[in-house]
Amino acid sequence: MALINVSNRLPVTLGKQIKKSSGGLVSALEGVTKSYDNFLWLGWSGGSVFSEEKQNQLRNKLKEEYSCVPVFLSRQEVRDYYEGFSNSSLWPVLHYMHNLMEYREEWWEAYKKVNEIFAQVVLENSSTGDTVWVHDYHLMLLPSLIKRHNPEIKVGFFLHTSFPSYEIFRCHPRRNELLAGVVESDLIGFHTFGYLRHFRSSAMRLLSMDTEENQLYYKGHLCQLGVYPIGVDAERFIKTLPSRETIKKRRELAEAYRGKRLVLNVERLDYTKGLLHKLQSIEEFLASSRDRDSFIFLFIAVPSREEVKEYKILLEQVERQVGRINGLYSTLGNTPIHFLHNSVKFEELCALYSLAEVALVTPLMDGMNLVAKEYVVCQEKGKGVLILSEFAGAAMELFNAVVVNPYDTASVVKALERAFSMSEEEKIKRMEKMRSRVLKFDSVYWANSFLKDLRKISLAKEEIPQNRVALESLMKDLSGIKDFALFLDYDGTLVDFTPQPEDSLPSGELLTLLKEIRRLKGLYPYIISGRKREDLEKWLKETGIPLLSEHGNSLFNPETGIWEALNFSMDLSWKEYVREILALYEGSTPGSFIEEKQYSLVWHYRKSDPEFGNWKARTLISELLEVAANLPVQVHHGKKIVEVSSIHISKGRAVEQIVNREGYDKVVCLGDDQTDETMFFQGDKRFLSVKVGKEDTRAMYRFTSPGMVLEFLRKLVEKGRK
Predict the structure, then answer these.
(1) Are residues 136 and 49 in the same domain?
(2) 626: which residues sit within 8 A by CB, 6+ positions away?
(3) Collapsed DSSP state (helix, strand, coil) of residue 460
(4) Measured between alpha carbons, how far is 618 from 615 in angstroms, rounded to an integer?
């Protein structure tokens, strides 16, 4: 069993020599690979290698010496996929800045193409039973591409950024495709529950998915959701702090900043980091400070995505703002803001973390922000103060920091004043609590947690056979049977649900299959549905299959063209009273409507807001159950419907009546909701039952989607032709 880690970039730098990168993700995976027979890291090589010979040489060297598999991309693909779609289109939306989003169709085409290239390389290097862990927003289509070709590969996806609310994410032109690409993972991980909740809400509303708090159901696939706050490579910092080079650098810095109170800012140069807002707060702090000569604000702005237009503009704005503030508040003895648009050596960074009196970490939105955790790890004496934005994922864990709203300039100024006036005892108390957590829940713990949960999901098996196994067993049960009846539900069984009930038309393939099924000797098919007579006759009359409407109340004989009532003399006086109740819910639930059938009333809410609709449905059912005790009705909560029907009608009664009348040797029933459970006669050896969907059932077998039902029908046709 292999673990294949997939990220946009490989953990190596290619040059005259190949240099292995360091970082939290690298060390985290080094700590968990012992649980797997084989480990590979797959990603973009980081440059354009055009010669096939050089590609092969590099491929062999990376795999043998570094357990890496390179993905080769052209310069144009990198520009459109990475700089274009990933960072100019998707990144701003994920960080609530949809006003900065750009979209070009050629970027989207490149994004799709690159994800397909990644999928091809993954499939070439994996086999059934392997685990693939996909990282981040660059590869949101990859899980579905892998599963499409090999459903038996276990796929996990972790989003390292934030995920916005549905109202923000829906602005992206390719929102549906992106979500559909990710939800075929077996497990999706997020830094915080807030991001998970937003993702689930978007999936529910945009893809009309059935969801629970930590689960999604999409086209028969179950996807688990989880919260896994990423940690830092704490061990690396702990080992580096007492090193000779770090101690030397700390002494040099302490001498350079003697008599000064150092405030450290370390971040990528990115508009999500709130640099301009931070500079505004610093300016107001300096303006109000009586001792402004004693403060130094050190900005280390690591270059980032310099080819993206917005980042070039941001650099110009920051440099202009820094120059203006320094022009106002510099003296012969001090320049308040030191701005470095460069990265620094790791030992120097550790020295700065340990030396800085305050770390000012105030992004406008950040998935986690590891700078905050790195600062905490390096505060061995615990005398520093962390000022942290409430919009960083880290704020959910580091609540002993001084938490601020970066949009509120006055609150940041007050936080700085508080940090500089805080007692040493309070500083140590706050830092000890944060440091203890960061050291315990490091990057290795994070990776172990995710992969452990992924293994659990992959190893879980359902008690009843499903999909391919169920299909094989069912066909084996039917071998040697000369004649049998086949009862097929319609919505959710033969066709997927649609936002509008009238749009659930049978496909051309389905109609062809049903016609062929009808002509097979010894097979007697029926379609039994909650639909009205008119719908079934209009859509399915041409198949020549007998139709049962309203859960088996009426039977359409295709030879005579006449509907026969299976139940007689029913009391329908209850309909007027129930209609009034449903009308109240129709009026108070936008998107809902009432459908009236001959023997039932249905309240549809599939066009309503999913969460609001579910809440109103539960309330309606509670109210209806109170009155149902005095009425000859039954209340049924189906797929986005609440149905009230005569107590004398059920699919089970209709099937039993027909089977007893015709005397079939074997009966196969397929259905997806509670009304179909009445057809799944337990203890009767004549009946074989198949549940279509995820819900609990008493059926013998399970198909997780209508697609498997069509596969079953194809098998029956093949069997009948032999």
Answers:
(1) yes
(2) none
(3) coil
(4) 5
- Rounded CA-CA distance 623/540 in Å is 36
Number of domains the chain contains: 4
Task: Using the predicted structure, report yes or no on whether residue 460 has a pLDDT greater than 70.
Answer: no
With residue 588 as reference, give the H or E element that holds it. helix 574-588
pLDDT tens figures, 226-263? 999 999 999 999 999 999 999 999 999 999 999 999 99
Give the strand pairing for 641-646 and 600-604.
antiparallel
Q: Are residues 414 and 557 in the same domain?
A: no
Regarding whether 258 and 189 lie in a shared domain, the answer is no
List active site positions. 489
Say which CATH number the domain at 640 has: 3.30.70
Say yes or no: 216 and 250 in one domain: no
> What is the total residue count of the chain?
722
Is residue 582 assigned to a domain? Answer: yes
CB atoms within 10 A of CB 395: 21
Distances from the Cα of 459 to the Cα of 129, 152, 180, 452, 660, angstroms: 10, 11, 24, 11, 43
Domain-ending residue, one of 198, 227, 256: 227
Range of the domain at 416: 235-440
Cα gap 699→716, rounded to integer Å: 20
Identify whether 283 is part of a domain: yes
Contact (Cβ atoms closer than 8 angstroms) between residue 295 and residue 286: yes
- The tokens describing 331, both together, are 């003296």
662 and 642 within one domain: no
Whether 388 has a pLDDT exceeding 70, the answer reads: yes
> DSSP assignment of 463-510, as one string?
SS-BHHHHHHHHHHHHTT-S-EEEEE--BTTTB---SSGGG-PPPHHH
Q: What are phi and psi of 244, to 5 degrees?
A: -60, -45
Asked if residue 285 and residue 241 are part of one domain, the reply reads: yes
Output the pTM of the full model.
0.81
483 and 628 fall within a common domain: no
pLDDT beyond 90 at 223: yes
Q: Which string of b and e fits 37-73 if b means at least 16 CB within 10 Å?
A: eebbbbbbbbeebeeeeeeeebbeebeeebbbbbbbb
Asked if 129 and 48 sit in the same domain, the reply is yes
Mean pLDDT of 160-167: 96
The rounded distance, in Å, linking the Cα atoms of 155 and 183 is: 10
Read off the pLDDT of each residue in 302-324 and give the average, rounded to a whole number.
88
The encoded tokens of residue 708 equal 């498997």
Task: Measure the CA–CA gap between 529 and 491, rounded to whole angstroms.
Answer: 7
Q: How far is CA 461 from the centre of its chain?
A: 22
Question: What kind and span of H or E run contains 277?
Answer: helix 275-288
